Amino acid sequence: MAPTSPILVPPESLQTILNFRDVGQTINHIQGNDRLREGRIYRSARPDNASKSDREALTSRYHITSIIDLRSTTEHIEQAKKRNAHVQTSAAPPPSNDMTAEPLKIPGITYHEINLNGGSFARALLWKLRWSSLSKVVGLMALGFRMEAIAILGREVMAPRGLTGLGKDSLDHGTSELRDIFMVLADSSNYPILIHCTQGKDRTGLVVILLLLLLNVPLGAISADYTASENELESERESRMEEIRRVGLGEEFAACPAGFVQGIAGHLQDIHGGVNEYLRRIGVDERTQDKVKENMLKR
Known about the structure:
Elements: E1 21-22, H1 23-31, E2 41-44, H2 52-60, E3 66-69, H3 73-88, E4 110-113, H4 119-126, H5 131-142, H6 146-173, H7 175-186, E5 193-196, H8 203-214, H9 219-232, H10 237-246, H11 260-272, H12 275-281, H13 286-296
Parallel strand pairs: 2-5, 3-4, 3-5
Antiparallel strand pairs: 1-2
Helix pairs in contact: 1-9, 4-6, 5-6, 6-11, 7-13, 8-9, 9-11, 11-12
């Protein structure tokens, strides 16, 4: 049984990138062993607003070589709008440590932009809409009202599915994206890797769950890592709730439900025959799975 005490963030952790932690270090701490390699996989919320010092720390302290960004095109557009608005409303030049003084992408890091909720996943959700709602969504998207369209999808499909249901949908319909992610994880030259979405808890959490299941980490430890995100994101809960409400979702989408990991693991086992068989079916063969293990397990 994994301990229920809070996972302590190292004192040198980043100040402007929320929910940042070393996955290997966290799991080793939870289990009281050193089975996983540390300094290999990190997870976080979006790093777009990181200070200059934190951006430098990603490359100089944590030696991040690659970033896997799981966000959608809409999320990138909205973040760019916020950044531009911040710049335009600031009368004085930004201080040297201000995020607006830096480009969105950090020089020296390779970016893998893999929209986990795109393609087949998005189409699967759209087909769950009533015909009248589907026509509204298509019309709004065509006119450029992306957030209004997503809000309809959020209220009518995503909210009833819940976080666990959407996680299962991601497994079933995000197969090409998950395959691409594991191809990145299989290449040792990509490490150390930072994986993030917007909050760094659900899409990032799903990828980390798959990785840890492949590494035979117990469910209790995986769940402790997943639920740690709720406390790590507490400082921005109100602003996150504004974003969540804009897409038609409720407060439960700001939380980390205790049964999420068990629900995902159960779905993998019951529907797909377990994580190894699931990965094989989506195009991550045994040899590639072994490479991922070699990159993350101590010899």
